[in-house]
Amino acid sequence: MKKVPVLEIFGPTIQGEGMVIGRKTMFLRTGGCDYRCSWCDSAFTWDGSQKPDLLEASDIVERLEMEGGSFFNHVTISGGNPALHEGLGEVNRLLQEKGIQTAVETQGSFWQEWMTEIDDVTISPKPPSSGMKTNWEQLDAYIRRLKDRDTKKVSLKVVIFDDTDLSYAADVHERYPEVEMFLQTGNDELSTADDQWLLSHLLTRYEWLVEQVLHANRLNDVKVLPQLHTLLWGNKQGV
Ligand SMILES: C[S@@+](CC[C@H](N)C(=O)[O-])C[C@H]1O[C@@H](n2cnc3c(N)ncnc32)[C@H](O)[C@@H]1O
Ligand SMILES: Nc1nc2[nH]cc(C(=O)O)c2c(=O)[nH]1
Ligand code: SF4
Ligand SMILES: [Mg+2]
Description:
Helix content is 31%, strand content 22%. It is an alpha/beta fold.
């Protein structure tokens, strides 16, 4: 079995973003990413500042159960880019065998067959402010393979920092009108420890984003969200 580089396991907490926002969940965060987003809030997964543990699927599930006890039935797999790791297929299988639902967060740049088995897939293509480029044909194929699954769901989530990002989000929405779409406030203050100040700063940015969407006729069928966990706990890791 292929081992998985694990950066952190934490929870239960609430899912702070996107399609299952507010849901009680555990987090499994893998190490390594094929992107280098300028504003990545999880750069510790790829910049060498923190070292992952290489773990077997059964050990990962054991650690989730040690951390979460009997207080969870949902696990969110994030990173880094979890889609770099074949071994997560076995983790997903073991969790679902126990009746635990699964979600994944990925930018959609790498494919794994286990992706089709995940209950809630969030694909988060990166807008111009990130400095990354979208491969549209690759994204087309990704969404095609995920959107017609029976009881399992897929959504798109674009983080917005400025007007150019908004226009990119409208392009994404027009290309995949049938996929549920979320716009998320970008956090441009990743190093402050002043939670009260950050809260009001991010709420102001959320209000700006809402205003923009209200007046954008290419964005009539989207949901606009803040990162709830950042409002509650600031830039703290592992929450
Ligand atoms: C850290 S990424 C890990 C999963 C995957 N690499 C991805 O980008 O989708 C998880 C989510 O956090 C978002 N994110 C990263 N940095 C952010 C920031 N500074 N403000 C708001 N959202 C951010 C990403 O766009 C993504 O939707
Ligand atoms: N509570 C909480 N919700 C989240 N949603 C997406 C996260 C991520 O880093 O992928 C995240 C996270 O790190 N914490
Ligand atoms: S794709 Fe995700 S983890 Fe990778 S650099 Fe961008 S935000 Fe960070
Ligand atoms: Mg995060």
